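User: Quick sanity check before I run a bigger batch. Here is a single chain. Can you write out its predicted 3D structure?
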Amino acid sequence: MLNSATTATLIATVLALVGCVAPSQVQREHAGWSRTELEADLDTWLDWTRSTHPAFELAVEQDTFGRQVDRVRAQLRDEMGVSEVWHTFAQLNPYLDDAHMGLDLPAAVGGSEIWRVEIEDARAYIPAGNPDEEREEIIAVNGASVSDMIVRTLPLLRGESDSLRSRILELRFRELLALHLDGALPVEIRLQGTDGTERFVAHVSSTVGASETAPFDMLLVKSTAVMRIDTFERDYEAAFTAFLEESFERIESARATRLVIDLRGNGGGAHELSDRLLGYLTSERYTPMSAVRARVTEDNMGLIPGGEPGAVVAMPFAQWVEPVSPMGHLFDGEVIILVGPATYSQAIVFATIIQDFQLGSVAGEKTEGKANQTAQVQHFALPRTGFHVRAPLYVLTRASGEESGAGVMPDIVWSNADDRSFEWIVENLDRSSGEAVSTESSLRQ
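Assistant: Done. Predicted structure follows.
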């Protein structure tokens, strides 16, 4: 049994779910690599993954994966360029079936800004700036079709589904362009409006820094508070803390009896943020897990008694958290958590805590990510190509002890969850509880 000090340290270590979109730096000065170099990097990737993941033989169907490795190896040849090599290696990603594991997109050069884009049906759109505007499609960049880029690359990204892969691609759209433009910077961008009008620009005006907009907000609809939270990323911790304080003050003042927390677009982040939210929902202790399977390394061996580097340890592990409830703002009404295919990582952990400790109901569509998440993601640069790969050190078992490989199953199942507006959601919840139906036109998707 672990002592309390070890437990406290492992809390921070195990639940620090690493973001899913860190780019890699590729040696682009290479005109091409030899087949021998490429095979060596392929073998290095496989050996590193097997020695890092604590249950690789269980997480991946070994015979099917082995045959795919042989197919990839057969495609390697001398003088392959960056894009061709990446698209060849990345054919293994779909067989890994975990956004915390696999080959990353190479990093883009010449700027760190994030293009705000929406990926739908193999097309990229610039979101409208306000309700009176219509979004534009990004048709081509430097003369190359963006749709063709998406069709070729999307199925090869990390992730359990196209929904998750699309989310990664939205966050790493510039990396997609760089991969297909051989690292060249975009100089001519062809846009098309919904009326067919086209225009050419040198840059996308909606590019924003990652921290310039807060990815959460709240609105009140009669007795229901609807809170959208699109991330638990640590970069937003201060803004998130202020948002929660203001929101729950408003909820208390409005005497709201129901709280809907929308995690349909939440790809995860740090447990510190989701724990802060839970502090407004319960005063009882909870644990995100009942067991852990861990790969022992030099860095974590002190946290796992008796473990030697390289060994795999599986043990029961209830990691209890005592919530810190804000004075006077603990919510004691009905709690509904919205999830969908793109809900992932720490957002999935949050949803399982809500279910397993009966703190509320989960509604929407089953998550594509597994209810038993992997964690403590490690990154490794392949020595010849410079491609970055990743693999987790931990596999967690949710608090209920359920060990299936399925996603989070909602208590209230709605098909096409991502397409449901807040208006539709509140109306259906009101109908099911016998309350009056709200139809405020100000509600948005």
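The first strand starts at residue 102 and ends at 103.

User: Great, the batch can go ahead then.
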